[in-house]
Amino acid sequence: MTVRWGVIGTGGIARSFVGDCTAAGVAFVAVGSRTQASAESFAAEYGIPRAHGSYEDLVADPDVDAVYVATPHARHADDALLAIEAGKHVLVEKAFTITAAEARRVVDAARHRDVAVMEAMWTRFLPQMTMIRELVAEGRIGRPRVVEATHHQDLPRDPSHRLNDPALGGGAILDLGVYPVSFAVDVLGAPVAVAAAGTLSDQGVDTQMGIVMTHEGGTQSTVHFALDVRSPNTASIIGEDGRIDIDATWYTPTTWRLRDRDGAVVEEYDSREELAGYAHEVRAFESMIVSGDRSGGAMPIAQTIAVMAAMDEARRQVGVRYAADDSSTAR
Ligand SMILES: NC(=O)c1ccc[n+]([C@@H]2O[C@H](COP(=O)([O-])OP(=O)(O)OC[C@H]3O[C@@H](n4cnc5c(N)ncnc54)[C@H](OP(=O)(O)O)[C@@H]3O)[C@@H](O)[C@H]2O)c1
Questions:
Q1: Which among 95, 122, 149 is the end of a domain?
Q2: What's the 322 CA to ligand 1 centre distance in angstroms?
Q3: Ligand 1 close to Cβ of residue 5 (< 6 A)
Q4: What is the β-pairing status of strands 66-69 and 4-8?
């Protein structure tokens, strides 16, 4: 069965994603935009047969099996629910939603309609990450005790840009922090405690934040992220018998090494020839759709909710509040 994709939103990531995945043979049959003109120019650029001038029309398209949601975070829950109600499988860009409560609503709706839903945390599906997960599971570094990871980028300063606008879920945490938080949850499981400190912009979103999470069994992760500085963005998994160091940029195919307890290199890896980007997660999601598997594979939906809950708590401590926090509390 070929999974036929529809896309919601025609912005930056929709372009990268559709470009990447078209090259890998993924079948895009329709695109939906808030404006007909934008849908048509996107469809023409990427050779997509149908252009819809509303998201409602896109999800009503009978030829669409799965919808990719590529709108700003603040719209993810509503756009995913729209697609689910129409009986479509949904791949939702990271951060999955604004709050864990929203995430639970989306997941409950997908269960109810028996459609697959997954967060598009593409990094988890890279062959490099699969190998790292296997090395840890095989005990090659002993019991993993600490995860360290950063995500720093120098992003647009324009106050109206979605990254700076609280109404669209702006701030470093949902855009950048979600990567290292998700990585820590991948390796160490859901956190049992979260301690965060950060700096807010004039608009009330976090420009930088550091989080220390304690996980099951007393393991810990430390993550730092910021949207107005650059760093190498490296990561380490430190175990009782060794460690894995991932070079810049850790969440893309790169070089990395397994070290023993004394720091000596045991094995070196160079994953830079791997296919970068979004095709791995799409193929994994398509397999889940076809097989009826609703587990989420490398991105289990329960971990998506755990990541959202950790970010809720970090934001609460630092004082980043979105409109969805009020509606989530009220529900
Ligand atoms: N996986 C990755 O590597 C990656 C990279 C970048 C971003 N992302 C994620 O993708 C999502 C979108 O980011 P982006 O950088 O693509 O954003 P963007 O360039 O601003 O595009 C977002 C699109 O969403 C639609 N939209 C609907 N309501 C909107 C509103 N109120 N304001 C602005 N746009 C609205 C627009 O499409 P229409 O006008 O066609 O409706 C717009 O083009 C975010 O959740 C982000 O975290 C993921």
A1: 122
A2: 18
A3: no
A4: parallel
**Using CA positions, which residue lies closest to atom 21 of ligand 1?**
11
Ligand 1 lined by 299 (C-beta under 6 Å): no
Amino acid at 220: Q
Q: What is the pLDDT of residue 295?
A: 85
Range list of H helices, 3-148: 12-23, 36-46, 55-60, 73-85, 100-113, 127-137
Residue 243 has pLDDT above 90, yes or no: yes
Residue 329 in any domain: the answer is: no
Task: Name the residue with the closest Cα to ligand 1, atom 5.
Answer: 13
- Quote the Cα angle for 230-232-256, to 5°: 160
With both helix axes pointing from N to C terminus, report the angle between 73-85 and 323-330 in degrees, rounded to the nearest 10: 50
How confident is the model at residue 329, as a pLDDT?
A: 60
Dihedral sign, CA of 50, 53, 55, 57?
A: negative
156 lines ligand 1 (CB under 6 A): no
Q: How far apart are the C-alpha atoms of 210 and 196, rounded to whole Å?
A: 6
Whole-number pLDDT of residue 328: 63
Between CA 201 and CA 224 the distance in angstroms is 17
Across the beta sheet with 89-93, the strand order is: 50-52, 27-32, 4-8, 66-69, 89-93, 117-120
Is the same domain home to 156 and 202?
yes
